[in-house]
Amino acid sequence: MTERTVSQSIQRDFRRQLWSLFCRAVDTYRLIVPGDRIAVCYSGGKDSSLLACCLRDYQRYSGVDFEYQVLMLDPGYAPHVRETALLNAEALALHPHIVETPIFEAVSSVSRSFCHICASMRRGYLYENAKKLGCGKIALGHHLDDVAETALMSMLFGGQYKGMMPRIESDSHPGMELIRPLYLIRERDIVSWAGHLGLTPVTCACRMTAREDMGAREKTKKMIRALEQETPNVVGNIFGSLSSISLDTVLRYRQDQHSPWVDRYADVLHFPGDSDIMEQREGGEKG
């Protein structure tokens, strides 16, 4: 597989499902601007693989002057998992900067909330190493299904309503920002793209994936899949609820000493129209 083959798969074969929505998210939320230096967080899985390839094409075709570096954080992968991740990178003509970390070892003795602790440690390592590479942003491969699942999980398991934002400033690392360019893309389309290219699936290989009982996110995924059998647009509806909150019908809300998200980002010019973002692309998609 050549870099051109990978680019054609995104630009031509999956243009409506992937490239158009990637560009729409970048434009709508102003995720990439001239002068940016972005650390693209790569795990070897389908989401981060697509993210890195889309950033590469965007640099080539958008006319926006920015730089990126593919950053691979190894939290302590088993040798075969690491090998698969590197083989996928080689197949996609990616050249990640690899950082070794003891994250899995550090959380191995934690009995509760180890997913939260692991995620927090990963985020910290990513910010720190991105800064060492001269980057002011990190890009993560969260997609539309992640956004919907997070909103639902926060209500069902957290007793609150919190969304996953397309961009957010880091509180712990001043001057750093996190962006999610795959924000509008469905996971099933990423799965199709990865299968089209013959990429080998990569799991995080942590204790949670080896457990027989499902974690909160997997339970939520299963619930959404079941709901989609009767309501195909359920993910779009959950996504739409994030920008259609009526404060008159909410018992109480808080701002945590911050202005609302939209006010914090004055350079966000517009929101995508609910109809064209939430519309299922089964049978034909706009753009």
Number of domains: 1
- Helix/strand-derived category reads alpha/beta
Rg from alpha-carbon coordinates: 19 Å
Q: In the CATH classification, which architecture applies?
A: 3-Layer(aba) Sandwich
What is the CATH fold-level name?
Answer: Rossmann fold
Notes on the protein architecture:
The chain is 47% helix and 9% strand. By secondary structure, the protein is α/β, with parallel strands linked by helices. It has one domain: Rossmann fold (3-Layer(aba) Sandwich). It has a 6-stranded mixed sheet, sandwiched between helices. Helix 3 links the parallel strand 1 and strand 2. Helix 1 packs across helix 2, helix 7 packs across helix 10 and helix 7 packs across helix 11. The longest helix has 19 residues.
Mind sketching the topology for me?
Layout: H1 3-13, H2 15-28, E1 37-42, H3 46-61, E2 67-74, H4 79-91, E3 97-100, H5 103-107, H6 114-132, E4 137-139, H7 144-156, E5 167-169, E6 177-179, H8 187-197, H9 207-210, H10 216-228, H11 234-241, H12 261-264, H13 274-278
Parallel strand pairs: 1-2, 1-4, 2-3, 4-6
Antiparallel strand pairs: 5-6
Features of this protein?
single chain, 287 residues, alpha/beta, Rossmann fold, six-stranded mixed sheet, globular
Question: In a few lines, what is going on in this structure?
Answer:
With 287 residues, this protein is α/β, with parallel strands linked by helices.
